[in-house]
Structure formats: C-alpha cells, structure tokens
Amino acid sequence: MTQTIDRARRLLVLAERDIISFRALSGHPEVDISATGFFAQQVVEKCLKAVAEYHGIVFRRTHDVDELVDLLLQHHVAMPFPSDQFSVLNPFAVILRYEETPYVSMSLAEMSKLVDLAHQWARGVVTA
To answer: What is the pTM of this model?
Structure first.
C-alpha cells in the first residue's frame, strides 16, 4: 500500500470520527447549530482531502471546501454531485465558530445529507 493511499485512508478515519461527533451533537437539543455545522464541514473537508490524497493531488492547508472541490475538478476527478453542493458549509469552518452570527441557512437534516453524500463518495473512492 502506498503512502498516498495510507494518508487518504487516515483522512477518511478522521472524517468518520467527526461523523460521530456530528451525530452526537445533532441529537442534543441544547447544542447550537453552528457547533453541529462545524463537524459537518469538517467531515466534508476531510472527505475531499482524502479523495485528493488518493489521487496524489497536492493541496494546501485550507478549510475552504470550494477550493478543494475546484482542485479536484482541475485534476478531472469525477464527482457524483454538483460541484457547488458543499459551499453552504464553508461558513461553519471558521466564521460561525468565532462570530455570533444568526445566519444559518440549512437544517440539521440537510447537513446530514451532505455529510452522508461526502462520506459515501469518499469511502467508495478510497476503499475501492
């Protein structure tokens, strides 16, 4: 097994750890959606990075899922979803963690769908 595949699998394991946190927080009525959204964004980010690693694509340290999607598209990595699908999660990476902003444009159910979509896709690529 190559180092690239090892790193891709490690990122997938980290994403799966964040899925557990996302699910736990989603079910807790006192947790603010911005905290839950942070873990949703982290899952998607790590899944995108896992696929990039698997394909040997070098990426910079970033939390911007749009940047990661664009990088994958530049390297002709096929995605079974619209390229802007995960954009709504970008504010959860930093902005909503450090600012008191009432702006949340999605429900927990929508976040869950994005988490599942990213994870199933990345898992299919990396463990194929």
So the answer is: 0.92
Specify burial of residue 37 (Cβ count, 10 A radius: 0-12, 13-18, 19+). buried
* Residue whose structure tokens are 């954009």: 87
Nearest residue to 44 via CA among 119, 120, 127 = 119
Structure tokens at 21: 């946190």
Backbone dihedral angles phi then psi of residue 86, each to the nearest 5 degrees? -100, 0
- Residue 48 DSSP SS3: helix
State which amino acid sits at residue 82: P
Q: Which pLDDT belongs to residue 99?
A: 63
Number of H helices, E strands in the chain: 6, 0
